[in-house]
Q: What sequence folds into this?
């Protein structure tokens, strides 16, 4: 302090100097590095294990890199690993998941965005109540609805089919997605909506020509939420489908948890990584848009 | 109202009510706007002026009453069917469309032939001098340019009635003055009916053919700018218009022989030149209103019919003129004078005014006497 006072005339001038190795920085970066290592270590172990052969794994050095890199476990996991009597690997589960994912994501986002738009801009009598009921739906534990849904799906003849699962995912995505879209559309200035009405655009005209083009970030957020949620779903998959239509997660479980024969750790690791690849890839590609969209949707609520 | 009247007036509002739940925003409002008039709705925020405009536009559903535009009952019509164009305070341009896209959006919704759309857009762009901007997006425009495009969007629709919802409030002071003049020019050129909402009294006084001053969902007075300024109907209007606002002195009316007098603490004003609106009663409590700019200070005071003197408390030089704060008859009193007059704190100056330019309001009802 005394030093500062003495040199007031000359030294404090321009930007204040900052030290790279200040105590705060060491604490901050130290913590971040430790946390990052903590989360990356399992991934590292999985990757190296999946690239080893079984003899090498039996040596028990789980942290050491593979002495001899082999992709055989990956090939086996994808195309020949056995679940029960089927021995065509994860590939079938992958395509099942894709066939569930694409219509579920598309339908849930399309319906929820229209819901959100209607609730934000075309208020009707009781719309607030409707919205509240919808939001309450997000807080009801899934378990209470499992059995009633089995009966509903059986009655409409969709039990065990891919479309039954699509329907379940679409319905369960509705509360949170509607909330997301409603908040985003509420934040778009109302004058814009009024101007479009004066210009003769109706409900759909405003939705497609004004709202949609302005809402790319929130659509990306909704897509990421839905793709990861539906891809990672296990509970609905195992209940509402049958072995032929099992999604990838269920099949992965069946491969990893099969009790007969030896545990092929390398194949299990490869299968797990393959299953996780889709959401992982999505985050890498759209992480920035995701953060931006979440922030935009959260501003007003 | 007869059918003939409906033909004359461009916009008519009959007994309009609007309430949001228990909150009554507009109450039994009536308004007739002749063809080609520039009507300004003026009031402080929350007085219902924008709500009224939204009702006329069809963006809010009315609770009761009827709205006619060009003699047609449009109470249930969609905004786009009413023959109106609207300009918003926030511009409300479609951000993902070019200026041209913004201008033609409404026309395309009407499925107008392409050639006609081109023609109309070109004409509007020419009138507003935004031709070089047609290919740009709103994000790349300045505030003034955006507002011009927003006006253009109303212009291309070729409608009978233009609605403006505080269109200049988001602009900086200089630009506001420029666009104000341009709007007036536009009105002179097009001759459309225009309804303009603002809380800025200068905008209202400069633009309007008639001003409607609103308070609590009720029109207080509707008159020409001159009428509003010189003969306010009630105390609210008198205090609202004018800056600095009118001086009010509490006192009583008294009758001496056949002359009415206004009497306050130490001030007596003969009212033989004052033009009474209603017949006054003796000993009636009133407020005597006098505009700061209608008071002469110094040498000029001697030629005025009523004279007194004040002690200067505060001087506010405003460039073109100077506002002097003082006290008269026990109330705060402001005088607007030429900036050449030399006044300073503590000086005593003679003042003079002409009672014929004053306004007297009943202290009980607030109405003009």
A:
């Amino acid at each position: 302090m005394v030093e500062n006072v003495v040199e007031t005339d000359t030294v404090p001038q321009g930007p204040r100097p900052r030290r790279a190795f200040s105590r705060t920085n060491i604490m901050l970066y130290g913590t971040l590095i430790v946390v990052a290592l903590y989360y990356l270590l399992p991934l590292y172990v999985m990757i190296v294990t999946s690239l080893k052969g079984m003899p090498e794994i039996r040596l028990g050095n789980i942290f050491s890199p593979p002495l001899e890199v082999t992709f055989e476990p990956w090939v086996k996991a994808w195309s020949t690993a056995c679940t029960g009597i089927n021995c065509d690997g994860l590939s079938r589960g992958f395509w099942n998941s894709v066939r569930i994912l694409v219509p579920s994501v598309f339908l849930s986002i399309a319906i929820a965005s229209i819901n959100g738009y209607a609730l934000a801009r075309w208020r009707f009598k009781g719309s607030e109540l409707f919205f509240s009921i919808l939001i309450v739906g997000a807080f009801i534990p899934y378990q209470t609805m499992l059995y009633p849904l089995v009966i509903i799906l059986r009655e409409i003849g969709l039990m065990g089919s891919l479309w039954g699962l699509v329907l379940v995912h679409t319905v369960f995505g509705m509360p949170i997605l509607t909330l997301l879209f409603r908040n985003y559309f509420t934040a778009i200035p109302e004058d814009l909506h009024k101007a479009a009405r004066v210009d003769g655009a109706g409900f759909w005209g405003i939705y497609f020509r004004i709202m949609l083009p302005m809402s790319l970030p929130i659509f990306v957020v909704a897509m990421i939420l839905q793709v990861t949620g539906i891809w990672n779903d296990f509970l609905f998959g195992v209940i509402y489908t049958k072995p032929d239509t099992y999604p990838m997660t269920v099949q992965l479980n069946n491969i990893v948890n099969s009790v007969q024969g030896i545990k092929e750790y390398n194949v299990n690791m490869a299968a797990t990584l393959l299953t996780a690849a889709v959401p992982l890839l999505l985050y890498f590609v759209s992480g920035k848009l995701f953060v931006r969209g979440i922030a935009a949707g959260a501003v007003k609520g | 109202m007869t059918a003939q009247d409906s033909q004359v007036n461009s916009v008519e509002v009959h007994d309009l009510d609007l309430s949001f739940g228990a909150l009554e925003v507009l109450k039994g409002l009536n308004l007739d706007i002749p063809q080609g008039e520039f009507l300004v709705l003026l009031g402080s925020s929350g007085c219902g002026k924008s709500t009224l405009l939204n009702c006329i536009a069809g963006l809010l559903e009315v609770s009761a009453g009827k709205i006619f535009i060009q003699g047609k009952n449009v109470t249930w019509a969609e905004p786009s069917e009413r023959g109106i164009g609207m300009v918003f305070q926030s511009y409300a341009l479609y951000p993902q469309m070019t200026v041209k896209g913004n201008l033609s959006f409404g026309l395309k919704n009407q499925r107008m032939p392409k050639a006609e759309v081109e023609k109309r857009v070109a004409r509007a762009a020419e009138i507003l001098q935004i031709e070089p901007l047609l290919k740009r997006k709103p994000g790349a425009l300045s505030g003034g340019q955006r507002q011009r495009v927003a006006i253009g969007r109303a212009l291309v629709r070729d409608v009978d009635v233009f609605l403006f919802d505080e269109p200049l409030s988001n602009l900086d002071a200089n630009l506001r003055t420029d666009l104000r003049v341009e709007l007036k020019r536009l009105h002179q050129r097009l001759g459309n009916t225009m309804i303009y909402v603002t809380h800025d009294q200068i905008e209202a006084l400069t633009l309007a053919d008639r001003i409607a001053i609103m308070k609590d969902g009720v029109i207080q007075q509707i008159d020409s700018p001159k009428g509003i300024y010189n003969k306010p109907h009630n105390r609210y209007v008198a205090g609202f218009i004018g800056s600095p606002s009118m001086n009010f002195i509490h006192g009583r009316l008294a009758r001496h022989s056949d002359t009415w007098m206004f009497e306050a603490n130490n001030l007596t004003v003969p009212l033989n030149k004052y033009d009474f609106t209603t017949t006054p009663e003796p000993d009636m409590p009133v407020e005597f209103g006098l505009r700061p700019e209608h008071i002469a200070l110094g040498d000029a005071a001697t030629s005025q019919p009523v004279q007194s003197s004040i002690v200067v408390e505060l001087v506010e030089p405003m460039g073109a003129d100077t506002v002097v704060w003082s006290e008269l008859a026990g109330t705060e009193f402001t005088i607007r004078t030429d900036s050449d007059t030399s006044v300073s704190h503590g000086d005593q100056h003679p003042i003079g005014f002409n009672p014929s330019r004053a306004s007297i309001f009943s202290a009980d009802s607030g109405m003009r006497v």
